[in-house]
Amino acid sequence: MTVTHHVRVYRSDEELPRTDQLAWKIAEVAADPVAVTDEVADMIINRIIDNAAVAAASLTRGPVSAARQQALDHPVSVSGPGSTVFGCALERTTSPEWAAWANGVAVRELDYHDTFLAAEYSHPGDNIPPILAVAQHVGATGAQLLRGIATGYEIQIDLVRAISLHKHKIDHVAHLGPSAAAGIGTLLGLPVETIYQAVGQALHTTTATRQSRKGEISTWKAHAPAFAGKMAVEAVDRAMRGETSPAPIYEGEDGVIAWLLDGKDAAYDVPLPDRGEAKRAILDSYTKEHSAEYQAQAWIDLARKLGTARPELRDPENIEAIVLHTSHHTHYVIGSGANDPQKYDPAASRETLDHSIPYIFTVALQDAAWHHVDSYLPARAARPDTVALWHKVTTAEDAEWTRRYHSEDPDEKAFGGRVEIRLANGETIVDEIAVADAHPLGARPFTRPDYVAKFRMLAEPVLAPDEIERFLDLAERLPELTPAEVRELSIVAAPGVLASAPAPKGLF
After folding, report:
1. Which residues of 152-187 are buried (b: 16+ CB within 10 A; e: fewer)?
2. Domain MmgE/PrpD N-terminal spans what residues (predicted)?
């Protein structure tokens, strides 16, 4: 059964035993040698395929090329053979923390992999690059890697269920640092004490503001989770050497909760698996069919449907106004409630546009489709009829959709809303959608064939056919992989692909 751990701030003169601290409880979960269920193992395989798919699609993009070159400019550390880098030949390895960095950016760049939303936002697939990098470097088996990833997902999702970061303008990767450190601890079979120190250090070094997802959103949006993964690897290394970390990191008088979150009077109830309980949190997460912020997924599906059924809605001359009635989060993060003029700017960055639901709904409505590249092209964003319609789209918070967004009932939890389209002729069109088509409760839930199809679609332009089959064969045999096979769990770009990408030089 799940155990709820009550967390509050303690004065320095109050006694808080180490064993009662949240970081210790996380470490106990990570150190618990519970078996991974078949259902969880299958979903982890799905997400490894999903990560590789979106990484393949981003191999030649600027931020990914820069991160990859940074990694390649560092040698392999002396304690192992190193870790692979997405796109590069399998024998071209680097130190695990730098592989976690490069691969983390590749996975995150297109905002196209899995998600879990509750009190906080998260992309729990961000745990995979750092845990896989360490597994390759130390010679772990597929079964060990599986256990590590199950922990990473469990801890991040459990933290996301209970502790809001964005409310205090703290970036969501503050939950990723501890979860990745815990996952690596599980992978390596480390004792509770060591994992505890690593979790504390990983949290301490990965708290940052949400300005990375506000205003003119920069390329750092893709780098932020990769940085958290890199810090997690380094935190584990430091803890393994016997070094200690700030404590109590969550509950301390000058700790994260007291000064970065809800303050000295705050309290949270964090659900964690009991000893011997299987880590199943990954089953509550969901992937993306479309390359955009998760809260836009259902809206894309609704817009595509409306644009197909009513083509006249694509013409701004026919539209007086479009209002998306939705949750607090959607309105204030990717909607007009953010008060970001950049969300209506046709010259805005891709990173900004994929966090603009007015733009996304407009393009999906006009094209009755969504494409991870074409839908964000500057020429597409600047099309006059698109700009005219785009500026007629606003969002509004709706109490019922906010309630459903926060519902703990999986059958009721929703990420969509209701659209009201007022036409110039006086007609009003009203429609709604609760979850994306690809959601487990959606019109077309994603299953293994869908993950494989997504991988093939995104990989075919950059990977050779035999490389696609090689990777899929390895991924689908994950629980039985040998250490040598785990070291080959990467994707190798076809000849000439990486040569066409920028390889910028910097300090290293």
Report:
1. bbbbbbbbbbbbbbbeeebbbbbbbbbbbbbbbbbb
2. 21-267
Q: 212 in helix, strand or coil?
A: helix
Give the C-alpha separation, 299 to 65, whole Å: 31
Instruction: Kindly report, as residue ranges, where domains of CATH 1.10.4100.10 are found in the chain.
Output: 2-284
Look at residues 108, 467, 164 and name the one whose alpha carbon lies nearest to residue 288. 108
Question: pLDDT at position 502, please?
Answer: 86
| Helix ranges restricted to H, 35-173 | 38-57, 62-72, 96-108, 128-138, 142-162
Quick one: tokens of 456?
A: 């093939």
- Those residues of the chain that have pLDDT short of 70 are none
Distance (Å, rounded) from C-alpha 96 to C-alpha 106?
15
Side-chain half-sphere exposure of 160, counting CA atoms within 13 A: 28
Q: Give the residue range(s) of CATH 3.30.1330.120 domains in the chain.
A: 294-433
Domain at 294-433: CATH code: 3.30.1330.120
| Of 225, 421, 214, nearest in space to 315 by CA | 421
Q: Which residue has the tokens 């601890």?
A: 185
Whose structure tokens read 């069109």?
429
pLDDT at 210: 85
Question: Position of tokens 């993306």?
Answer: 288
What class, spelled out in words, does domain 2-284 have in CATH? Answer: mainly alpha
Phi, psi of 190, deg, nearest 5: -75, 155
Task: Kindly state the DSSP code that residue 346 receives in the 8-state scheme.
Answer: T
Query: Can you give the pLDDT at residue 233?
Result: 98
